[in-house]
Write a structure and sequence with these properties.
Elements lengths: L6 H16 L2 H14 L8 E3 L2 E3 L3 H14 L3 E5 L5 H13 L3 E6 L4 H8 L7 E5 L5 H9 L7 E5 L5 H12 L7 E4 L26 H11 L3 E3 L1 H5 L10 E4 L2
Parallel strand pairs: 3-4, 3-6, 4-5, 6-7
Antiparallel strand pairs: 1-2, 7-9, 8-9
Helix pairs in contact: 3-4, 7-8
Bound molecules: S-adenosylmethionine.
């Protein structure tokens, strides 16, 4: 007896439940409260990708895996490299797919972090640029590394101040190609008051000076992106709910 093929039904249920979860404000508030509690333990600093620290919540790594697999970009640009885990994670996805390059931009690539990235088995798919993400020279270098007709995805995970993220959205948003994603990290702080803002950061980010308000401003300026309500809907215990937007034209 052959089992009934229920894959379509399974996928449809995922979409339905993810969208429904995105409307469940009580669940979101509980998640926010738990993430705030977990931050006392530096929760987003506790993980590694293939031996290298990745400063992410596991849910965001999973969400990024889903969009890389489904969109198969030729180039992924990430601002904010830190210790290298996220560029190496995305590079390993591209390596499994068999195509693509990650361009990592950071204002301060410390020698030990550069060494760890450059000596990693996935480094063959990584190009590092040191400099401020919206500096003209850096943007020129980034553009020069993108082949003609490449499918391009962008992840913004550097300085999370509203003005900086808005400047990054304007500079990098236009590089994202149709069907690919722009990911704005740490949108969760857009739900946090100044008093409750995470304190163990280089700067204080909170509602009003945060990536989510920058993204919302950017989305009101351009008509090329739509919020992926299904993907964002299931992003509880995530740093970046609402931060995953798809380029539609
Ligand atoms: C949150 S960490 C990045 C975490 C990394 N994406 C990961 O998942 O492991 C932020 C990084 O942004 C960098 N940064 C801060 N301001 C920047 C700027 N103006 N341009 C580029 N990088 C910047 C910092 O040096 C730091 O390494």
């Amino acid at each position: 007896m052959t089992a009934r093929d229920d894959r379509q039904e399974f996928e449809e249920n995922k979409v339905k439940q993810s969208a429904a979860l995105g409307q469940d404000h009580a669940a979101f508030d509980q998640s926010l409260s738990l993430v705030t509690k977990l931050d006392e333990y530096d929760y987003s600093y506790l993980w590694s990708w293939m031996g290298v620290p990745i400063i992410q919540m596991p849910a965001d790594v999973m969400a990024t895996q889903e969009i890389i697999w489904s969109t198969k970009p030729d180039v992924i640009i990430e601002t904010g490299v830190a210790r290298g885990g996220s560029v190496l994670f995305m590079a390993s996805m591209l390596e499994m797919i068999g195509n693509g390059t990650v361009i990592g931009v950071d204002v301060d690539i410390r020698s030990h972090n550069r060494e760890a990235i450059e000596n990693h088995p996935m480094s063959k798919r990584v190009k590092l640029i040191e400099g401020g993400s919206v500096d003209i020279g850096v943007l020129e270098e980034v553009r020069s590394l993108i082949p003609e007709d490449a499918r391009v995805m962008v992840v913004l995970d550097s300085d999370h101040s509203r003005d900086h993220v808005l400047a990054e959205c304007r500079a990098y948003g236009e590089l994202v190609t149709e069907g690919c994603y722009l990911v704005v990290a740490d949108t969760l702080v857009g739900h946090v008051s100044k008093e409750n803002a995470p304190k163990k950061r280089s700067k204080l980010w909170y509602k009003g000076n945060d990536p989510l308000s920058a993204l919302q401003d950017y989305l009101s300026e351009v008509d090329r992106f739509e919020v992926d309500e299904v993907l964002n809907g299931k992003l509880v215990l995530s740093s970046s709910p609402g931060g995953y937007v798809r380029c539609i034209r």
